[in-house]
Write a structure and sequence with these properties.
This protein is an alpha/beta fold and 235 residues long. It contains 6 helices and 6 strands, in the order αβαβαβααβββα. α1 packs across α2, α2 packs across α6 and α4 runs antiparallel to α5. It is globular and about 45 Å long. The N and C termini lie far apart (36 Å).
């Protein structure tokens, strides 16, 4: 790790990417293959050769997500790591609570997200100096204070970079159209945020961008734990 002082915010998306790749030896671009991470892959491939991309295969992803992953693998010069949850942890969880435990309570939904997403990411990021994410402040109130570049205490203090933090949804889609970046097929069916298949639905006009995530919850915060913990709730 070369590290160094964190740069002054804000930077352009390209500047943020250049900085993290110049200042750190091992950088992971963590992609869900939603619109934002698709943009980041396209940008990163213009900056360095064969950026390392990590995606979390939770075991419950839509088939369309897997198809898009393969499209990116074929089109872009990336080193793709597909990370899966620990099989023993999944087996123990489902044996105790059932395969659809996430519908029983917010706590069990968070447990499912923890086993299938947060723990695998924590394990894999232990080998990196920095990671890149597609977070945008406009996405939700829980992300409104997201810093573009910061130390990440959830993952051992490595650097966390959100190059698109100040972008609007319109800017993201304008980039996708101008640069012919592949987009997730479910967007065409009214989805505005895409996660695991059982936990995601299309949104209606006027609904919040993440309203289709865990839509049956009355009090749950629309986060899985990758970027937020219950003690950090702002809404």
């Amino acid at each position: 790790m070369t590290g160094g002082d964190l740069p002054a915010n804000p930077l352009s998306a390209e500047e943020a990417l250049r900085w993290v790749y110049e200042q750190h030896e091992r950088v992971a671009l963590v992609a869900s293959f939603q619109a934002e991470s698709s943009v980041l892959i396209d940008l990163a491939c213009q900056i360095i050769e064969r950026p390392e991309v990590i995606t979390l295969d939770t075991g419950r992803l839509p088939e369309e997500t897997h198809e898009l992953i393969e499209e990116f693998r074929a089109r872009y010069p990336i080193r793709l790591r597909v990370v899966q949850p620990d099989a023993a942890e999944v087996e123990a969880m489902t044996a105790k609570h059932g395969t659809n435990l996430f519908r029983q309570s917010v706590d069990l939904r968070l447990k499912c997200c923890d086993v299938r997403k947060s723990r695998p990411l924590e394990r894999v990021l232990s080998g990196y100096d920095a990671w890149i994410t597609g977070l945008r402040r406009q996405q939700s109130s829980t992300r409104a204070a997201t810093q573009q570049v910061a130390s990440d205490p959830q993952h051992g203090g490595i650097t966390k970079v959100a190059p698109l933090v100040e972008w609007t949804k319109e800017q993201v889609w304008e980039y996708i159209r101008e640069h012919d970046v592949p987009a997730h097929p479910l967007y065409a069916f009214g989805y505005t945020s895409i996660g695991c298949a059982p936990c995601t639905r299309a949104t209606a006009p006027g609904e919040a961008e993440r309203a289709g995530r865990w839509w049956w919850e009355v009090d749950g915060v629309k986060e899985c734990g990758l970027h937020w913990r219950p003690s950090e709730a702002t809404a």
